[in-house]
Amino acid sequence: MNFIIAQDTNFAVIQSSVEKLDASNASELKDELLTLSKKGVNSLILDLSKSRYCDSSGLSAILTANRLCKDTNGQFVLCGLQENVAKMIRIAQLDKVLNISETLDEAKAVLN
Q: What are residue 103's DSSP bridge partners?
């Protein structure tokens, strides 16, 4: 399993265990996001601290998470970005639309 999911009372945390969030595993992340959404989870934290690379497929999955949360009046927080991933997000100007925290603890504080 490439993504570890832990549910809290108010939100779910998805931790990536892949070094590269790309076309080979982004669809799996999207499937997990849809499953959580169908279960009524509308606030998510995506922890990418173990991912050193992200391509357009990975960015698409991140945007899917953000959209699913917004559509259900929830919140989405992205955390643990390594420099290469943060750079991709800045280049795509997604840092202007995504809620990004440095650490998982900071992300949890946003949702509590």
A: none
Q: Which residue has the tokens 């997604």?
A: 94
Interval 52-106: pLDDT, tens = 999 999 999 999 999 999 999 999 999 999 999 999 999 999 999 999 999 999 9
Coil, strand or helix at 59: helix
Question: Which H, E and C letters describe 40-74, residue by residue?
Answer: CCCCEEEECCCCCEECHHHHHHHHHHHHHHHHCCC
- Which domains can be identified in the chain, with CATH numbers? 3-111 (3.30.750.24)
Q: Model's pTM, two decimal places? A: 0.97
Cα-trace Rg, the chain:
12
Distance CA 57, CA 44 (A): 19
- Please report, to the nearest 10 degrees, the dihedral formed by the alpha carbons of residues 60, 56, 32, 24 taken in order: 150
Residues in the chain: 112
